[in-house]
Structure formats: structure tokens, C-alpha cells
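Example 5.3 — HAD family phosphatase
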Amino acid sequence: MKIPNVKAVLFDLDGTLIDSEYFYFSNWAPILAKEFGLDITFDDWIQDFAGHTLVRNVDFLKDKFGIETTQEFMWTTTRANYAKSDMTTIRLMPFAKETLDKLKAKGIRIALVTSSYSTTVNTVLGHHNLLDYFEFFVTRELVENPKPNPEPYLLATQKLGLDKDEVLAVEDTITGYTSASSAGLQCVAVTRHQSEINRLSTAKYLIQDLSILIDSID
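Solution (predicted C-alpha cells):
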């Protein structure tokens, strides 16, 4: 796998640079069990919830399980759980820092495009001393239409001022992959979860960890 002419890499955050999905699962699962009697496993979380927006997950709960709840309620209750948890316990994904180091050494520009809010970015990446690697952050509060809409990646590309064929996105879910691809960008999908691998089966570039990425960029 060789990807030529890359001048900038736009990274997703959750599941791509940070191993945060179990953190989110462990905060959502007790709420779903207590409030709605719905017990989910981590595999269920990866299969049905990971990589999606709050709006979509609320709709999913209604459509699949008949659970009547609101975005406001789920926002308030999940954020209350997050506040009681320690986000600094969230680890980096394998080879995340090494990849950022190598990209920086190559002179390739780096930015972040995430559906998470800036508080999450600052807390987790700040804890790992990674904030300075990024030229800018496109977070949830900066766009009207989050992933899978192309808006976040169109905004990031505009900020870079580069041609689209010079920009590479790195994503771990079909939601993010759809966003980047719809924005006209090349995208590397990186995931170790079989359910997501199945959904990303048509991706041109599909790898299981970031160690392969740096050697793929000319």
C-alpha cells in the first residue's frame, strides 16, 4: 500500500488515536440498564453504537428497542457519568504517538477531525502531551452537521488550503469513512473490530493498526 502526494493527514480521535470506546461503553451501559432495562455487552456497543453521534444513537434506541428517550436526557446523564469518570485513564491506540512523531519528522501537516467536543480533545490529548502535534482541531461544536456528513472534512480541507488529493483522512468507522470519502478525500480505515471491518469491506485502504500507515505515505 502506497499513497502518493500526501501533504497533510487528518485524524479521527475516538478509536483511531485514543482507545476510548470501552470508556464510553462503561458510562452508557449502566444508564441503559438502570433507566430502560437494556443490558448491552461491549461487543454490542462496537456493533451498534460506536462511531455514531448522540442523535443517531437516540434514534437507534427507539427504532430497535422501542426506547423513548431524548437527546437532552442522554446528553445530561452520559455527561454526568463522564464527569465522575477519569478521562485521563483513556489510553492511546497502538502506535499513535509513534505515527505522529514520524509524520512530524517528515514535515507532513497534522490536524484532527472529530465528533467529540473540545473538552474531550483537550483532556485526553492534553494528558498524553499530544496537543502540539496538531495544526488545528475540527470538533463537534464547530459544525452543524457532524459525521457521516462531509461538513467536518470540508471545513478541515478549507483550513488546510490544500488540494483534496494532497489530504489523507484516517478513520476507524464507516461513519467517519463516509464523511471523509463524501468530502472527496482519500481515507485509510484502521480498525481491529471484525464488525467494523465488515462494514468497511469496500474501503480502498484497510489496516488493523497505525504501524502500517507511516510506511504507506510517500
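Remark. The chain has a mean pLDDT of 93.
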